[in-house]
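Example record

The entry below shows one chain as it appears in the dataset: sequence first, then structure tokens.
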Amino acid sequence: MRALKIAATGMSAQQMRVEVISNNLSNMSTTGYNARRAEFADLHYQQYARAGSVNASTGAVLPTGVQLGLGVRPTAVSVHLSQGALSATNGDLDLAIEGSGYLEVTLPSGQTGYTRDGGLKRTAEGLIVSSDGHAVSPEIVIPADAQSISINADGEVFAYFADAPAGQLLGQFSLVGFTNAKGLEAIGSNLFVETEASGPPLVSTAGQDGLGTLRQGYLEDSSVDAVREITELIEAQRGYELNAKVITAADQMLGATTQVR
């Protein structure tokens, strides 16, 4: 009775699907969050009669054969890369990436991280950092007497002072692209790190080499579609229930077998 184990793999798969959906819904308000999707593949097949083999009793070639599948397995939880809506905040250091690309930050360990969360802040020394205090690369320091800050679409940062009508260029933010951005490893706090699957970082100026542009005073909302997530949640729940019914039916069949005398 293989149905017990087959249905168990189905219940496990639907449980993982629900967990991924739950994470998507919990991050509906996370800046720059991209929804995840659980992906599955069928397991090994037992060959009772291989297609194209010859029937020993009739000599005829079997057109289809007999294959019995053994269940399902998870293959990946992939990121659905899509642009989230831009919400106006009017913050001087709020940056939204319109298009592809990531901001580069330096983690406490010295490792380089990447994020689309443009809710930047300023330290007591004037250094521009991420929401978690990681320095944005290249490092840009805002003078204490600066009256306002302006950041153009190319990432150039200008400071304006009371005694000078023209802005002073402090530096320029760069954007980073990857050949396979889905291969980045998420480490939490809206941060990603490079992996062998993602390929090396391609650092360039905003608006060049296929990278997006920067919008000051905006933040990128998450790309989670609540209607789609709820629909998939219902499908996963029904799939879990149906696999549970298979286990119940298999158990009843085994019970009937043990009662045969």
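Notes for this example: Residues 226-258 form the longest helix (33 residues). The longest strand covers residues 164-172.
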